[in-house]
What we know:
Helix content is 47%, strand content 8%. The chain contains 13 helices and seven strands. Strands 1-2-3-4-5-6-7 form a seven-stranded parallel sheet. α5 links the parallel β1 (73-75) and β2 (108-111). α7 runs parallel beside α9 (176-189) and α10 (212-225) packs across α11. The radius of gyration is 19 Å and the shape is globular.
Amino acid sequence: MPITVPAYGKEAAGRLASMADVTADDGALRRFLHGLPGVDAVGLEGRAATLGTRSIKTTAKAYAIDLALSMIDLTTLEGADTPGKVRALCAKGINPDPTDRTTPKVAAICVYPDMVATAKEALGDSGIHVASVATAFPAGRAALPVKLADTRDAVAAGADEIDMVIDRGAFLSGRYLEVFEEIKAVKEACARPDGTAAHLKVIFETGELQTYDNVRRVSWLAMLAGADFIKTSTGKVAVNATPPVTLLMLEAVRDFHAATGVQVGVKPAGGIRTTKDAIKYLVMVNETLGDPWLTPDWFRFGASSLLNDLLMQRQKLSTGRYSGPDYVTVD
């Protein structure tokens, strides 16, 4: 099913415009971001741990597994990627379990920009989106014109979604307006000639941001700049998505929506490998943001290894037997 982000309504657009003075200059943006409430680390980690103890069974678990399957961005981001590997991944995304045609399709296939056309052709009219990492992924160490060219090339090749990485060095140095303007510029580069645009996911690489306060600040900064999704990580560093960081980002999205009326999605990525883990994240979404975010339109998992565990648990629920990893394809 196509994934759409509706245009802002008049009320939301007006409320967002009323915050324009926050980003008028570097000083104003700094005052706003440093004026956000400080994060209670003990409270945040305790809340995430408590939500992680919730248990769901039987039909609710089956529903959660299918929902998680439909939220996966199935990804290959290796230097050795080939067209054949990308086509095979697309086939798995369309039909994750060949023994059960009721298995949901994944949300998107995520590839490097040079593989977008291959993925687009392989997916055809399946309704699965093509996401592409751009902006010098994963380090983001390139001049802005290079990042914008990378983005435009991916969009021109057919990318439905762009996953950009912020300049963490600029952010950690306090150059907030520079990061804001870069996100805005990439957002503009996502536009197509027909007036539509690829959706923009902004990757923070939270494992490198040092503090929870920084995660809250960068979440607001990205949303003010026009991010359609905020994303934890590239999956290429030692520390990727964690429950406390994801919960903090969900809370930022909740508060931003309350302030502006604008809905923004969240994507934890890296390190989410088991069905049990995925369900913990879904519980967090439900408890923090509610039903409107419990769809692939507004929540994703950047966790390709998660798919096989979800398939094995799904098979166990339907057959009563645990088949094991030999009964699912290896990515």
